[in-house]
């Protein structure tokens, strides 16, 4: 059969004109996809040209898309996939400084630098982020209480601003633009390259102490008492445990192992970087697989499996820092509805607020896999940098959970009242008017953007949603 | 922008005084929606709707819009979209007609089609084009179970909804990968002024319940929403009944 009455399979597909070809992009949570024109500039000149060519809906840089929400997407406008801008310009192996383009991933830096005895100064819970994304969100790691955020270790960076100029910024000479860019979510311009100060290590192994905490009080007491002894510290907390077990957790803390802690076999290649991975999670997993019952059973198993206490265990970097990277595309297990991450910080002294929040989440029976609790150190100078002294909690939740909007709006209120804030790199649903009280330098940020980018060349879905 | 929970910040309601439309608008304004455009024929009901949503804290503007005036849709809606992004368009206008009378008056029957089908086609196309340009947004189309299988009692109305439903499904498919989401909503019998004085069908529901189903559909990114949800199963059975059996059941 031919013509207009042909069955669907025979229907001719109309070809869209090329200028109209859009790609739907979303963040790691796979919620709220929007269409944009995506280009992958591989040189500085190409980035400048792409900025010029961007239409009235502006442009934003995108790294590896590991932010959970809508930070690295720009509906109806242009998105620059920065991963092609990935040259390593130089490595100073004596002083531990790498100069690289912004599309280079931390994974690549680790593979390159570990054999030379250097490690990235800060790594988030995944290595699959770019240097540009690490600066854009001013990411933190398990060493925040010791080392601060990523951008503190950036000695200088090149920034393409809306006027088409490439500026080299250092924290000393250009504190305003530098610290507006660090944590500025790509809205001050495109970071083209950065010089990063690295950390010297003797081995590629981490010496890890593991202990269990039976409840939230026990957990906070342990973290309070001994965090300062460790470079890296984090606790995995079971938010489905209730009653007396509320807030039970497993603490894993450690530091880079010195040479003399290695056995003969490990000494054969003390700086080797090995990753073991499973095959990627397949597409097309239906939603609703994760319920409070299935996730609760997993959490239970995981808690019981952890040793009550164990000292000085040698773990690989992927095992200690990036356990989820071993399961590529793990975000697909949430099905087509996607998921979101809620991460907030409340100041020290607001432990009661933290407890109320943990109780609320537990009461709501959110099917949340192990959440992460950590103590932050001093706040970072980035105007919109997230970390500030206090307790930070991060949990993943399926986006289709009934009542989720109201639950999280309520938690925001609790966080706000305690003087805390939520993390923009994870956010996908905050109330716009809650942002200013959380980020006191927001007005400065907006004013600077109005000054250096009056035509609003740089924008994103996040910027539109929250009027950044 | 819509957020991860499908909550829009701005809404365009086509059929600005529709009961289902307003029940949905109220719920959305209680969420993230601040900017509301009501498009409809001027009437006290439309003015009252604007006042009510304003009192709830929304910034409301009202636009003269006649679904039957097909050649005005580009201009009227073009102006609305020129004011800024629209995160959700709710196509809620529609007329039930008077089946028995309209069977005797072909032009009256055509008027039902003019609003429910043709008016929806033109306004949905104008909206879809604008949403596509902005790269995001949901177009929510109020279809009806009446379009699922023609009934003796309302096949003029039912056939317009069948056409609209097929059109909206195809439009949704054509917008795959553009960031634009089309959601087809199929309510059953909804108690309200449209159905006033008519015998209630089984599984009757309310405008508020339909609104709730729309919000859940937005949160899940659904392409099809039945209200109540159980109609999905019921109608998949009804669809396969042999004609003589169906004729005896349906009124
Ligand atoms: C499993 C997992 C664990 C995580 N753990 C942590 C953690 O422990 N700590 C933490 O802080 N974060 C964590 N994150 C979040 C992640 O580190 C940040 O979202 C990071 O920004 C992602 O980098 P990306 O290269 O994917 O950037 P994208 O997600 O693509 O972009 C993030 C932001 O940076 C901007 N950007 C990207 N490249 C540039 C550039 N070249 N110039 C200017 N702006 C740019 C984008 O516009 C956007 O606003 C985690 C994420 C996942 C998925
Ligand atoms: N009620 C039900 O049982 C039911 C069931 C399934 C589907 N639906 C569908 O759901 C939608 C909303 O229905 P409802 O229950 O909310 O009924 P409603 O309150 O009667 O709303 C219908 C709306 O359509 C508007 N309208 C009619 N003709 C128009 C025109 N030419 N131009 C502009 N607007 C016009 C009406 O505006 P005026 O005030 O100007 O007339 C009114 O706002 C309709 O599409 C309906 O078909 C309803």
UniProtKB/TrEMBL annotation, chain A:
Keyword terms, alphabetized: Oxidoreductase
Domain FAD-binding PCMH-type intervals: 31-201
InterPro entries tied to this protein: ALO_C, FAD-bd_PCMH, FAD-bd_PCMH-like_sf, FAD-bd_PCMH_sub2, FAD_lactone_oxidase-like, Oxid_FAD_bind_N, Vanillyl_alc_oxidase_C-sub2
Protein name: FAD-binding protein
Organism: Streptacidiphilus cavernicola
Automatic annotation (TrEMBL), chain B:
Domain Ketoreductase intervals: 9-193
EC top class named in words: oxidoreductase
GO molecular function, one term: oxidoreductase activity
PROSITE patterns with a match to the protein in the record: ADH_SHORT
Keywords: Oxidoreductase
E.C. no: 1.1.1.333
InterPro entries linked to this entry: KR_dom (IPR057326), NAD(P)-bd_dom_sf (IPR036291), Sc_DH/Rdtase_CS (IPR020904), SDR_fam (IPR002347)
Alphabetical list of PANTHER family matching this protein: 5-KETO-D-GLUCONATE 5-REDUCTASE, DECAPRENYLPHOSPHORYL-2-KETO-BETA-D-ERYTHRO-PENTOSE REDUCTASE
Family: Belongs to the short-chain dehydrogenases/reductases (SDR) family.
Entry protein name: Decaprenylphospho-beta-D-erythro-pentofuranosid-2-ulose 2-reductase
